[in-house]
Write the structure tokens for this entry.
Amino acid sequence: MVFINDLSPILVNVGGFEIHWYGAFFATGILLNYFILTYLFKKHKHPVTDLDSLAVYLFFGLVIGARLGHIFFYEADYYLSNPVEILKIWNGGLASHGALIGLFIAYFIWLKVHKIKFTKYADLLVIAMPLTGAFVRLGNYFNSEIVGKPTGNDFGVVFRRLGEDFPRHPVQLYESIMGLVVFVVLWILYKKYYRNAKPLYLLFTFLFLYFGGRFIAEFFKDLQGPLDMPITMGQLLSIIPVLAAVIYFIFFYPKLNRRHS
């Protein structure tokens, strides 16, 4: 079955003031993440003031890291030649790998300022991250960007705004569904095992599942990035967090003491 994507990226246009679907989905993902974290912090009797303070750091780490990641991993030549475009994040162009780096840097800075251990909040913070990613990918679909490879048959999505008349894999939707599935898995693991789980169990489970899923989804994308290699830039970058998770579960997880709540 073939679907036609002729969606406008603009959600609202009033007197020249535009709200884009991408921005609306991005904001929705961030807000849902914050509401879920508020619930989790209250449930475990963590100070919500810590969350409010941390949220500011993480927001800037997310946006700056994701934007710079997209620029330097995928389109450095274009953005360095058109620096004003760097600020137009509503047009899309956020990289999840850059977001991960930005979030970790922001979290480390916040921990240093507030003199708090890394493990105190790390597992809770990752639970809703794939949910945010799922909404961002919906924004990519509305923008007709990060498109998949041509399917070569009567299945897929025709992205008319790209001037095409052949179907492609709707890889944005694949990744959005993947993000929702990872979120559900993390939520189930949290409900069943969090109180007795070993430190960083959810963090590395997130890294393994989400970026393992990203690695697979990249097979359906058009090649991205300045690489003369049989894998995409996204796959190359996904290998690092997946390997980190594998190393954790093989070498460190068995030696860790159980958390005490």
Q: What stands out?
A: The beta strands are 2-5, 10-14, 17-20, 156-159. Residues 48-74 form the longest helix (27 residues).
